[in-house]
Design goal:
This protein is of the alpha+beta class. The chain is built from three helices and seven strands. About 5% of the residues have low confidence.
């Protein structure tokens, strides 16, 4: 068990991250799981759940089946805080998050596949807006191609 924990912790180091944003980073573990970790907004706050984590989790719950499925939560035992979560690995449609290819390599799609993706995206946005969710950051790196092709 300790070997597994050490492998997980070493894989989560920021220098092994695949995507960095101002409020955290995303790491891939064994190309099966995605660890999304958020930095403390105010480390002195004695909150159990970091505000950005709480907000993202609420949006995932409201989005329902239109969101990535959560399979676990990440806790910082030293600070007693929920700092992120674990999701299944899915392939992003954008370069920069493409784990299997060269950095900057774009996924190749036919014109028909591109039309299908645009159609699915339009339907997704309609469903989210019906739930009163406005994403505000729709871009290729935020679109995931799931293992079932959806």
């Amino acid at each position: 068990m300790n070997d597994l924990i050490n492998r997980i912790l070493s894989d989560m180091q920021p220098n092994r991250s695949v995507h960095r944003v101002g409020h955290g980073y995303v790491s891939i573990f064994e190309e099966r799981y995605v660890f999304k970790v958020f930095h403390d907004e105010d480390p002195s706050e004695p909150l159990l759940i970091r505000p950005k984590v709480g907000h993202e989790l609420r949006m995932m719950l409201i989005a329902g089946s239109d969101s990535v499925r959560l399979i676990g939560r990440l806790f910082d035992n030293t600070k007693q805080k929920l700092i992120g979560f674990i999701m299944p690995y899915e392939q992003a449609l954008a370069p920069g998050v493409n784990i299997g290819g060269e950095p900057g390599e774009r996924a190749k799609f036919s014109k028909e596949q591109k039309r299908e993706i645009i159609d699915k995206l339009c339907r997704l946005i309609e469903r989210l807006q019906a739930r009163r969710i406005i994403h505000g950051d729709v871009k290729p790196s935020n679109l995931l191609l799931c293992s079932d092709g959806q």
